[in-house]
Each structure stands twice: as C-alpha cells, then as structure tokens.
Amino acid sequence: MNALGLSMIVKMGCICSRESININGHKYMVKERLGEGGFSCVDLVENTTTKKKYALKRITCHSIDDQKIAMQEINYYKKLRHPNIIELVDSTFKGSADIVVQATSEAFLVLPYFKRGTLHDCLTLRSFNKNYIEIKEVLRIFNEICQALKFLHDFTPDPIAHRDLKTANVCLTENMEPVLMDLGSCAPAKVQICGAQDAQKLQDIAAERSSMTYRAPELFHVESYCVIDQRTDIWDVHELVLFMLNVNPSERPFIDDVIAKTGDLKNKIDTIV
C-alpha cells in the first residue's frame, strides 16, 4: 500500500472503459488511472451529481486478514481528524474474501484529489527549474508536517506512528498547505518486543508497509528484546533537520523537540530578515 504515496497525482494512463462505481448512494465515474501498487490502485473519479473530482483508492483483499488490514486503514482515516492529515470522504467494501475458494473482495476509499500533487513533485519540479522554495516557506511546511506527526504521536488513548513518512506521502493544497496521506502504514506507536518471533513479525510488517529508503534502522533488524516507539517517524524526516541524525534510536528526539528546534530556526531567520 505504501507504494501509492505518489500515485494520487501521477498519471499512468487513461482507462478506456467508462466504469461507474456506486458508493453508499453516490455515483462516481472513473476518469483515469492515477497509480497502482501490488494489491491496490488509485483512480481519478468524478461525482456524477456534483462533478467534483476525487481520488479513489481500491484495495484488493485476498483473505479475511487482508480485509482486516484494509478496515484498519479506513478506521485510522475516520478517527484521525487534523488539518494536516488527509480526510476520508467515504468508503465501502464489495464482495467477500475467501482464500480457500480464491474469492476476493475490494475496499473502496474516496479521498480528496490534490491538483498540486505531492511535496516530492513540488521539490523535484522546482529543483529542475532551479526555482527553489524559500527557507522560511520550507520551515513553515515542515512545521505543519511536524504538527500532524505530533497529533499522531500524542493521540489518546494510544499514540500512533505513521511509519512511512516521506515527501511522496505529503500532498499540497492550492495554498501550499501540507497534508499527510497514506495511513495504511500507521500502527500503534509503542511496540514491546519480547523474543525473536515478535521481532521477526515487526520486521516483516515494516518491510511490507514502509519504504526502504526512509525506514528507521531499528526496523531493519529488530532486536529480540526492545521497545520500538513513535521515534521511527523522526528518522523518516532526518534529511530536513540535521540534529535528528543520531544513529542511536534511544537518543533520537521526540516530535516536541523537533517542533521547538524548527521554531528556533524560524525565529533566527525572522531576526535576520
């Protein structure tokens, strides 16, 4: 699922058939395929009544466990309400997965469509044109991403880690406001590892749901007896804040420290400008 970070806005080609999908009484017409991963894809769809465009994420489920994972993603969208976290417009399941008879089901998630694309697209285009974002704007965007992370990390009763934070998983609104997306990788922030079996399980989950380039070191080789917490997300953004570059995960800062440091940098720039 994490492979779809960029797919909400990257066009991979048109869909020739005029497929229509009914979701809880709302009819959507599929306009084109935006992207696809191993067991999911994202289509650009249009509400036939309002003519408003959305990104429709479709997850193919081959088993009951797959359905539970898709349902978990939907539940994260529903309960995590924050200005800098993507909202779920609607959702539904069609069919029933049964691995014995090789029957599949499909989860449909209606999400906002962002014309500007992702932060990755923005940075790539600006780098190509040598039209770089001003440092104050970079700090503003980064600070808002941190606020979204803080919301996840402080969530009650159980803190949540995103586990696949990267520029391709941050959409940009028309006003250049960052919106964190792809909650399929989210998980309880604090995990107590008690033995080799627990370690291997978390390692396998991380390999499946987290991008290798951005994955925290402690998720590549999980120790048999340890505690993994929300600071895995802090590793994901280490390229933007140099003081987070500490190989020892126990000494890595929490999100409040990151926000404070970002604020200090912005204040220094304000005094210079």
Automatic annotation (TrEMBL):
<keyword id="KW-0418">Kinase</keyword>
<dbReference type="InterPro" id="IPR008271">
    <property type="entry name" value="Ser/Thr_kinase_AS"/>
</dbReference>
<dbReference type="InterPro" id="IPR000719">
    <property type="entry name" value="Prot_kinase_dom"/>
</dbReference>
<keyword id="KW-0547">Nucleotide-binding</keyword>
<dbReference type="InterPro" id="IPR052239">
    <property type="entry name" value="Ser/Thr-specific_kinases"/>
</dbReference>
<protein>
    <recommendedName>
        <fullName>non-specific serine/threonine protein kinase</fullName>
        <ecNumber>2.7.11.1</ecNumber>
    </recommendedName>
</protein>
<dbReference type="InterPro" id="IPR011009">
    <property type="entry name" value="Kinase-like_dom_sf"/>
</dbReference>
<dbReference type="GO" id="GO:0004674">
    <property type="term" value="F:protein serine/threonine kinase activity"/>
</dbReference>
<keyword id="KW-0808">Transferase</keyword>
<dbReference type="GO" id="GO:0005524">
    <property type="term" value="F:ATP binding"/>
</dbReference>
<dbReference type="Pfam" id="PF00069">
    <property type="entry name" value="Pkinase"/>
</dbReference>
<keyword id="KW-0723">Serine/threonine-protein kinase</keyword>
<feature type="domain" description="Protein kinase">
    <location>
        <begin position="28"/>
        <end position="273"/>
    </location>
</feature>
<dbReference type="GO" id="GO:0005794">
    <property type="term" value="C:Golgi apparatus"/>
</dbReference>
<keyword id="KW-0067">ATP-binding</keyword>
